[in-house]
Automatic annotation (TrEMBL), chain A:
One of its GO terms (cellular component) is bacterial-type flagellum basal body, rod. One of its GO terms (biological process) is bacterial-type flagellum-dependent cell motility. Signal peptide: none annotated. The keyword S-adenosyl-L-methionine does not apply. It comes from Sinorhizobium medicae. Residues 17-37 form the Flagellar basal body rod protein N-terminal domain. This is Flagellar basal body rod protein FlgB. The gene is flgB.
Automatic annotation (TrEMBL), chain B:
It comes from the Bacteria. Signal peptide: none annotated. NCBIfam families: FlgC. This is Flagellar basal-body rod protein FlgC. Belongs to the flagella basal body rod proteins family. InterPro entries: Flag_bb_rod_N, Flagellar_basal_body_rod_CS, Flg_bb/hook_C_dom, FlgC.
């Protein structure tokens, strides 16, 4: 029987989406912080491609950045228009759009996992 | 830490920062006419607040915190009102350097940011409950 790849892929996408949600929440919380630069995660495709070695956190004070969290980068503002007087580059509307996209993708992901799970159960039962 | 849980934490820090800002605004508005208690003394001085990003060590997420509560060093408004207890010998009274319009604009901005943070909390909660729903027995 072919190994089923879907669950691993789905859980990685769910993890990526929650990391992104975390980053967006950080942007929104810092919408009024002077000199704060908006951040975002790299697209899921590129995260899928490079999965590297990860350092172990052996002390409470160590930064435990997961492989996904390491993909967080600063977004360069397209032009000076997006930069506020205080040096902040967060655009609230854009961040709220992003949360919408995250929510949709997460719903799709969870729905797919659910229906796949149901299909597997169907073969097991009876 | 689970990224969604830390998203909740980040948004909560945003709520706290914005509500502190709202508190400062309301202090300024409440004291917009608070003069000194003796002739010639200084009145209430407008308070200011500034935020800073703080990295959460456990998750690497950027929380927000109130960096500094300061005071606005601009000049006081001076008004001629000889009947006022705080008036000096020329009849001039120093009034706080609070501009209600600025405070109102600040209040609106804090309000909007608070709403945006609430929205993120709702969303993170939805995502978590969708994940838990995967475990429920499907019909």
């Amino acid at each position: 029987m072919e190994p089923i790849q879907l669950f691993e892929l789905a859980s990685r996408q769910a993890q990526w989406l929650s990391v992104r949600q975390n980053v967006v929440a950080g942007n929104i919380a810092n919408a009024n912080t002077p000199h704060y630069k908006a951040r975002d995660v790299q697209p899921f495709e590129s995260v899928l491609q490079n999965t590297g070695v990860q350092m172990a956190a052996t002390h409470r004070a160590h930064f435990t950045e997961s492989a996904d969290a390491a993909q967080v980068t600063e977004v360069s503002a397209l032009d000076d228009v997006a930069v506020q007087q205080s040096g902040n580059t967060v655009a609230l509307e854009e961040e709220l759009m992003k949360t919408g996209a995250i929510k949709r993708d997460y719903e799709l992901n969870a729905g797919l996992v659910k229906s796949f799970h149901r299909m597997i159960l169907m073969t097991v039962r009876k | 830490m689970d990224p969604l849980t830390s998203a909740l934490k980040v948004s909560a820090s945003g709520l706290q920062a914005e509500s502190t800002r709202l508190r400062i605004v309301s202090e300024n508005i409440a004291n917009a006419r608070s003069t000194g208690d003796a002739p010639g003394t200084d009145p209430y001085r407008r308070k200011t607040i500034s935020f800073a990003a703080e990295v959460d060590r456990a998750s690497g997420a950027s929380l927000v915190e109130v960096e500094r509560l300061g005071t606005d060093d601009s000049d006081f408004n001076v008004e001629f009102d000889p009947g006022n207890p705080a008036a000096d010998e020329k009849g001039m009274v120093k009034l706080p350097n609070v501009n209600i319009l600025i405070e109102m604009a600040d209040m609106r901005e804090a309000n909007r940011a608070y709403e945006a943070n609430l929205q993120t909390i709702k969303q993170a909660r939805d995502l978590i409950s969708q994940t838990i729903d995967l475990l429920r027995a499907s019909q």
